[in-house]
Inverse folding.
């Protein structure tokens, strides 16, 4: 999933939220990060399902490593 569609998904979710305290930039960044993690996870799962090389194709390894980085960043900030 591309970043633009992740942003649209995040914006749509934010528009549906009830009025409450304003989200700060840090909270918006973490919300975007969660959507990016979900989108990348979905993409990775689809690639794995379609792959004939199993879990060792370069593209799957690269996506997996990127997902690991995003999850680590999220955990560092929300530990």
């Amino acid at each position: 999933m591309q970043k633009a569609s992740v942003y649209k998904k995040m914006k749509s979710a934010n528009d549906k939220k009830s009025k409450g305290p304003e989200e700060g930039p840090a909270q918006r960044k973490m919300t975007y990060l969660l959507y990016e993690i979900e989108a990348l996870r979905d993409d990775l799962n689809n690639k794995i399902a379609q792959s004939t090389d199993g879990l060792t194709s370069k593209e799957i390894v690269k996506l997996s490593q990127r997902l690991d980085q995003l999850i680590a960043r999220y955990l560092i900030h929300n530990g």
